[in-house]
Structure formats: C-alpha cells, structure tokens
C-alpha cells in the first residue's frame, strides 16, 4: 500500500497490517474507491464502535499542536448533550487562540424556545466548566438555522487565520464543515486530504479560496455518551430527528419511570411534583411503583421495556444506579449524556436515583429551559 494513501473519511494514513490500530483497511478492500479506513467504513455502515479511537492522549497532543499555531478554534457542541460533548481542558491546550463555541442541533429544542435565554445559559455553563470563549453561536447545521451568525462570528474573530474545527463525535462536525466549505470556497464538498507536517495525527486540511485553511480534526469519542454505546438502529430512536415534545409527569415519591430499557428514573423522596422529560419522542416511557421496579426490569427488559431488544441490551453495560440529590431553592435539570435531560419543576428539593448503562454521564445543572 502506497504511503501517501489516506482515508477519505477521516484523513488518517491507511495501513493493512494492524487491525487494532488507526487507519487499518483490510487488503481486499484496497480496490474500493473512494477508499476509507475500516473504522470509518463501520461508522458509516453500521455505526459499530470498532474500539479503535483517538485516545485521550493523542487528542490532547493534537490540541496542543493547535497551541503552536495562530488560528481560530471552532468548538462544536451538541445542545442535546451539552455536558457530554464538552471537551475538558480545551482552553488550556489551544493556547492563546480564541475559541468560538458553536452550539449545534438547536432544531431539537421545543418549538417555542427563548434562544436568548439558551445563549445566556450556555455562556454561564461554559464559564463554569472553565471554557473561555469569545462568542457563543446557536445553530442547526441540518436545518440551516443560525448559519449566517456562525459565518459572521468566524469572520469577526478569525483575522485571516486558519480555522481549526474540534468536537466530540456525533455533534454534527461533518455536517457543519460541509456547510462551511460551501460558503468559503468553490469546492463541491469534496474533501482534499493532506497530512499536516509535524504531527503524528492526521488532520484534514481544506483549502479555502482566500488561501487559508479549514482544518478538520478527528472527533474524540466519549464513551460516557449513551449514544456511543448503542446499535445504529437504537441510535435512530435515541437521537431525536425533530424538536422534542417535552413530556410532563406528575409523580409522587416512590414512583419510577423507565425509558425503554435504556434508563430508569426513581423519585425516592420529596413533595409530589412534576418532572419534564426532554428525550426523543420515539422513546416510550413506562411508569411503575419504585417497589416493583427491580422485578419489572428483570422480567420485562428488552421485551415490554424496549428499545433496545434483549439481544442489543446484552451488548451494553449493565444498568447502574446513580443517586442524585436535587437541592432546594432553584430549578435544576438532571442531564443524562446521550439521552436528554429531566427538568425538576419544583424548587423544594428531591432525592432521585438514575439508572443508566455503567459509565454514562449523569449531571445536575441549572435548568436550561
Ligand atoms: P460528526 O460525527 O460530528 O461529524 O457528526 P455528523 O455531521 O456526522 O452528524 C452526526 C449526526 O447528527 C447525524 O445523524 C446528523 O444527521 C446529525 N446532525 C448533524 N447536525 C444536526 C443538526 O443541526 N440537527 C439535528 N437534529 N441533527 C444533526
């Protein structure tokens, strides 16, 4: 295999020797055109997580490289999984370069949404996370919402510099980059890949008409997102394809809700109150008494409590319980990375337990909506 061949999907250098390493392509697949690495092939075709990912160290190395350049960093996050798609340590590694935070998928928010409030919320949460950004822009790469503002923000902050685009997997980075390319150049969305000298990592450099580059970086895979743990079929159910319809449940203490077999929500202690669930409309909810919940799950997981199917469930980490205490005095959300979030509609406090596949990130935050 010639040394110059690179994957047209992710830009990594291709190799046929080590199946467990980046850039692997089976020898018999070399005739394919365009040629992509097995990992991209799988992601495209099965959404199978192949186990070969850009690990955290390599990702940090790549980010540090950005620190030695003069560039604008565009960090794309997913509004539907805000905590889960933030990159920890980003400002430390990109040096003095300004960061524009592009918050994608706002089409998934309910129809009636106060976007100013969302921008303020994002600013505050980003700041608490230690992420200093020059601007927050909301958009939907898919529905073409807010894109003018993304372009305006980039023009304002780039000062003739290259643009590095960073993000976790599945935040919509490719969709957004394709839009950028269409706006900044005449190239018909065909990615010109070339390796960036001086790193062992592979970046896709896309030349713009003004002589600068948009540089696409590999997406970092965060296994703490439920969306990384499920099959392609279940991903379709988990990821809303249009605005979520908030679902409100009046619950007494000692009641439980299941969302398929993916997640279980126990209201353990607190005044009777309502909870609003922002999860995919396609995911069915099932209410029961807390005392019956263990038995119900054992008997009906993957069958009545579905998706996923029993077979798919067996490939996922076991449900694990995370106790959550909601403090008094303010409105809070409990976010479940990759699933969505629950708004607690009372400021009287509550004791909850969230059961999710082991490793999925559960966080309490001030409520977004
Ligand atoms: P990447 O892994 O970050 O490059 O993400 P992709 O661009 O491949 O998008 C990941 C998934 O999110 C795909 O299923 C897209 O259709 C979807 N997606 C991307 N942008 C949006 C958006 O603005 N809204 C919605 N609802 N989905 C989006």
What would you say this structure looks like, in words?
By secondary structure, the protein is of the alpha+beta class. It has 3 domains: 1-52, no CATH class; 56-216, 3-Layer(aba) Sandwich (Rossmann fold); 228-366, no CATH class. The protein is 24% helix and 25% strand. It has 10 helices and 16 strands. A 6-stranded mixed beta sheet has the order 3-2-1-4-6-5, with helices on both faces. It has a 5-stranded antiparallel beta sheet with strand order 7-10-14-13-16, with no helix packed on it. A hairpin with a 3-residue loop joins strand 8 (255-259) and strand 9 (263-269). The longest helix is centred in the N-terminal third of the chain and has 15 residues, at 115-129. It starts with 37 loop residues before the first helix and ends with a strand. Guanosine-5'-diphosphate binds at residues 104-105, 107-108, 140-142, 167, 169-175, 219.
Overall mean pLDDT: 86
- Beta-strand fraction estimate: 15-25%
Identify the strand order in the major beta sheet: 3-2-1-4-6-5
Question: At CATH's second level, what is the architecture of the largest domain?
Answer: 3-Layer(aba) Sandwich
CATH H-level superfamily of the largest domain: P-loop containing nucleotide triphosphate hydrolases
How would the blueprint of this fold be written?
Layout: H1 38-45, H2 56-67, E1 71-78, H3 82-85, H4 90-93, E2 99-104, H5 115-129, E3 135-138, H6 147-158, E4 162-167, H7 173-184, E5 204-207, E6 213-216, H8 232-238, E7 247-251, E8 255-259, E9 263-269, E10 273-279, E11 285-289, H9 290-300, H10 310-314, E12 319-326, E13 332-336, E14 340-344, E15 350-357, E16 362-366
Parallel strand pairs: 1-2, 1-4, 2-3, 4-6
Antiparallel strand pairs: 5-6, 7-10, 8-9, 8-11, 9-15, 10-14, 12-15, 13-14, 13-16
Bound molecules: guanosine-5'-diphosphate (GDP).
Guanosine-5'-diphosphate is lined by residues 104-105, 107-108, 140-142, 167, 169-175, 219.
Pfam families: MMR_HSR1 (PF01926), YqeH-like_C (PF21516)
InterPro entries: G_CP_dom (IPR030378), GTP-bd (IPR006073), GTP-bd_ribosome_bgen_YqeH (IPR019988), Mito_lipid_metab_GTPase (IPR050896), NOA1/YqeH-like_C (IPR048422), P-loop_NTPase (IPR027417)
Organism: Paenibacillus agricola
